[in-house]
């Protein structure tokens, strides 16, 4: 595929100018968000936006209806400062780069490995590499803990756990080597840097790994230990917690307060829901 423009996926520093004001997207690696941060964000939405916190199928959060600096499409400084105060924008330079999706139940129930340490290590490694701030806003890491719930999700880079200590890399639409989970973030960051080198610059630069004219790695066979795809997590009581659906118009303060009263940490899921972990119920 040949692109004709850079991607326009929004962030906090690059909001989307919608009809009702600016739209800001905040990345949540692994979908993880603390109750304190979510409460702070709904307060921002009430003061500056439409009063709701919205979720995306990439397990991120959005706030709509925000004010712009006069004559620009940039977020007004008071609103940006308030968003930074939530703790959900740890790096202005990596605003668009922290797209990391993971199996929502990982470490809570089932799966072949607890990928929460991998999510944390990958996020830290992304933030520590200045060049990765240039990743396209649609570039996505997907980490499946071996239950198969994210096996059908398209990704640029990722892995599928084959057991408690190893996983097979996903590279674009293909597969990479089987590696230990400890330290795998360095290999993923290295591949992301190779992608940036290979894509070049300008409006026609690829957004995704599978769009590169030359593959990042040679062909690797899929492991025979890979799981079968599993269906989406249903709403309601599930192993590991309570999966609460998010309405189309987002979460207002009462909804946020109910979630945050139930647990100090929550997981936004790829199915427009919030998982309240059982270990905190």
UniProtKB/TrEMBL annotation:
InterPro entries: NIR_SIR_4Fe-4S (IPR051329), NiRdtase/SiRdtase_haem-b_fer (IPR005117), Nit/Sulf_reduc_fer-like_dom_sf (IPR036136), NO2/SO3_Rdtase_4Fe4S_sf (IPR045854)
Pfam families named in the record: NIR_SIR_ferr
Limits of the Nitrite/Sulfite reductase ferredoxin-like domain: 20-68
A GO molecular function held by the record: metal ion binding
UniProt keywords, alphabetically: 4Fe-4S, Heme, Iron, Iron-sulfur, Metal-binding, Oxidoreductase
Name of this chain's protein: Precorrin-3B synthase
UniProt source species: Ornithinimicrobium humiphilum
């Amino acid at each position: 595929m040949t692109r004709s423009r850079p991607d326009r996926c929004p962030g906090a520093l690059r909001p989307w100018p919608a009809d009702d004001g600016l739209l800001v997207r905040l990345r949540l690696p692994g979908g993880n968000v603390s109750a304190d941060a979510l409460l702070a964000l709904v307060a921002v939405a009430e003061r500056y936006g439409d009063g709701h916190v919205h979720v995306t199928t990439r397990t991120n959060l959005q706030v709509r209806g925000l004010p712009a600096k006069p004559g620009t499409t940039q977020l007004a400084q008071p609103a940006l400062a308030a968003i930074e105060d939530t703790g959900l924008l740890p790096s202005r330079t990596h605003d668009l780069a922290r797209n990391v999706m993971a199996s929502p139940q990982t470490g809570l129930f089932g799966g072949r490995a607890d990928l929460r340490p991998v999510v944390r290590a990958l996020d830290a490694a992304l933030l520590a590499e200045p060049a990765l701030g240039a990743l396209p806003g649609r570039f996505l890491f997907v980490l499946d803990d071996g239950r198969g719930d994210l096996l059908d999700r398209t990704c640029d880079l990722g892995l599928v756990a084959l057991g408690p200590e190893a996983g097979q890399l996903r590279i674009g639409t293909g597969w990479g080597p089987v590696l230990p989970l400890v330290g795998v973030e360095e290999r993923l960051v290295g591949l992301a840097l190779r992608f940036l080198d290979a894509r070049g610059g300008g409006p026609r630069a690829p957004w995704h790994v599978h769009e590169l004219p030359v593959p990042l790695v040679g062909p690797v066979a899929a492991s025979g230990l890979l799981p079968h795809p599993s269906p989406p997590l249903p709403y309601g009581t599930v192993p590991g917690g309570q999966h609460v659906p998010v309405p189309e118009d987002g979460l207002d303060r009462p909804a946020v307060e109910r979630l945050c009263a139930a647990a100090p940490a929550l997981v936004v899921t790829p199915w427009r829901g919030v998982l309240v972990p059982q270990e905190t119920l």
